[in-house]
Every structure is written in C-alpha cells, then in structure tokens.
C-alpha cells in the first residue's frame, strides 16, 4: 500500500508551526508496512487543496489530509476535498449527533461545523469538535496534533502493507569513500541502502526479510571503519 500525506496550513508554510503531523503519520504508516510516497504542504486555499488531492488520489492507494477543519473562514479543507471529488458539502446528521452526545447543542454550534462532502463517512473527533471524514480513498483529519492522532488511531487498521526491517551502520569514513561498499552490499543482499552524512555517515539498510537485513548489516560493519 502506498500513501500520500497532504498537510494544510499557511502557518506551516510560513514556518510558524512545525509540521509534526507529517512526521508522526509517516512513522505510524511505515511501522505498518505502508510506503509513504509524498508529503506535501499546501496553503489554506481551496484550489490548491483540490488540485493536489485530485492528483494524488489518482496515483496512490490513499491520501491523508490534515489541517483546516472547522467552521472559520480559513478552514477550507473540506471544501477543497469536495471539489477534488466533484461533490458538494452537506450537514451530516451523524456528526451532529456525535457532537450533541459530547455536550454541544446544535443551536450553539457555528454553521458549517458538521459539513462534510456528500457521501463521506464521518470520523468522530473524540478530543475536539470538528469531525473528520473518509470519502473514497481520501482521509481528512484535524490539524491539532492530539485530535489528529486520536482520529488516525480509529482508522489505522485500514492501512497495511509489507513489513520492512531496518538496521543502521555508522561508518567513520567520508561518504564518497564508501561507494564501493554500498554497491557491494546491494549486490550481495536484497536490501536498499540509504546514506546520511554528518559527523559520521549513517548507512541505513532496509529489506523485507529480517535475517537478510541483519546479515547485510553484519557484513557491512566488517567492511567499514568504525569507532568502537
């Protein structure tokens, strides 16, 4: 299964808010064997949300959209998703019922709080107000981290893939000097290798067979310079 993540918010693009949602979602999905192929941030603009969601839902098994839910003027994510799928918004009675159970009177709710794309499956916001939604392969979650995490947990079982295993080897050599060993370990074992330079070079080995990954990492440790 492959997934694209779309985070919505002018404050993210301006650097005023750290995009922890994308990192957390990527970690959760990777642990479930799901391949995260794209992480994209778009402004609070209906046309941008619609364009990106429409493009990604055609390319990936699922799209997760976070942020911009609610009834205020800049909460336009539901409108953008509805536009991407060619449908309108309507007040969802089930979502309103949940809110009433949580102590919110319909009369006191701001207009638009429970508006979802027509045909969407509502997702209850257990720690906030604005509901989420699932429509076709698009999952719409809140931007508030606590709300997003709780809501994702309610649909996490709908995301699965091939389990991958990972080992890290730290080499005390320049990255350019390691190219021959990186090539060799790829040729000897069914693993992918990522190289991340810094004070030392972290070599990340990944594969679908745990024993192969462990053996490849052991071989690589024997063939690079390391500080014990």
From TrEMBL:
Transmembrane segments: none annotated. Gene3D superfamilies: MoaB/Mog-like domain. This is Competence/damage-inducible protein A. SUPFAM superfamilies: Molybdenum cofactor biosynthesis proteins (SSF53218). The keyword Plastid does not apply. The lineage of its organism: Archaea, Methanobacteriati, Methanobacteriota, Stenosarchaea group, Halobacteria. Residues 4-163 form the MoaB/Mog domain. It comes from the Archaea. PANTHER family: NICOTINAMIDE-NUCLEOTIDE AMIDOHYDROLASE PNCC, NMN AMIDOHYDROLASE-LIKE PROTEIN YFAY. NCBIfam families: molyb_syn. Keywords: Plasmid. InterPro entries: CinA (IPR050101), FLAD1_M (IPR056596), MoaB/Mog-like_dom_sf (IPR036425), MoaB/Mog_dom (IPR001453). The keyword Iron-sulfur does not apply. SMART domains: MoCF_biosynth.
